[in-house]
Design a protein that fits this description.
Elements lengths: L17 E3 L2 E2 L18 E3 L2 E3 L6 E3 L1 H7 L6 E3 L3 E3 L4 E4 L4 H5 L14 H6 L19 E3 L4 E5 L2 H8 L10 E6 L4 H4 L7 E5 L2 E2 L3 H7 L5 E8 L2 E8 L1
Parallel strand pairs: 1-3, 2-4, 4-6
Antiparallel strand pairs: 5-6, 7-8, 9-10, 10-11, 11-12, 12-13, 12-14, 14-15
Length: 234
Amino acid sequence: MVNKTLYPHVWFRNSGDEFYNNIIFEDRYRPAGNMDFSPWGKLMDRNFVHVKGMKGVEPASELARQSGNDRHSLKGDALFSAPGLGDFSVRASSPALKLGFRNFPMDRFGVRSRHLKALARTPDIPEVAGNRMEKRETVLVKKLGAEVRIAEGEGDLSVFGLMPEDLGRVLVIVKVQKDSPCSSAGILPGDVLLMAGGNKVDGVEKLERLLPSSGKLTVTVRRKQENRKADLQF
């Protein structure tokens, strides 16, 4: 998918899944929850991360770090033929071809029937953004001892199994400080903070007003698409 990456939602240890010879648009994968084992799948390698305008190629180091595979995967400019016109084949000089990517006809998938084509809407072709590894803004919530960010976009919706109304409100834990209330409660990076003291989380400022100066606060976090409770001690 244009401007997307792989979302390995249901992989488990020794799953036998394979993902190779693809072009993706982020130098990372987006697993659902913490896939805290390595390597992932039976075969994950020779994938190409498109970075618009990049000169030359480099190892896709973040893919390799995440998957424990991808030893030959690279990142660079895939040199698409005419992406603005919906032609995502690559030119003969594309480095993706050397990894094993193969062009395929752009008009031989999707809606094929003439009758259905007459009914189908013409899709909007998104502008190719290249490597979408932009850093999202994080905020340190001192009382929690954790850096958080707002959940946003279809990626977070899918990866964490959130509801649309959660976007722009609930908070993703990015980093947990040692010996902090979050650390002591077993909260991990990648958890999503949904509720605090029986109240729905709605941004950083409202969360900070819910945090007591002392005592206990029960929170609900989402991990691996399941909700669980944790008690924070202040």
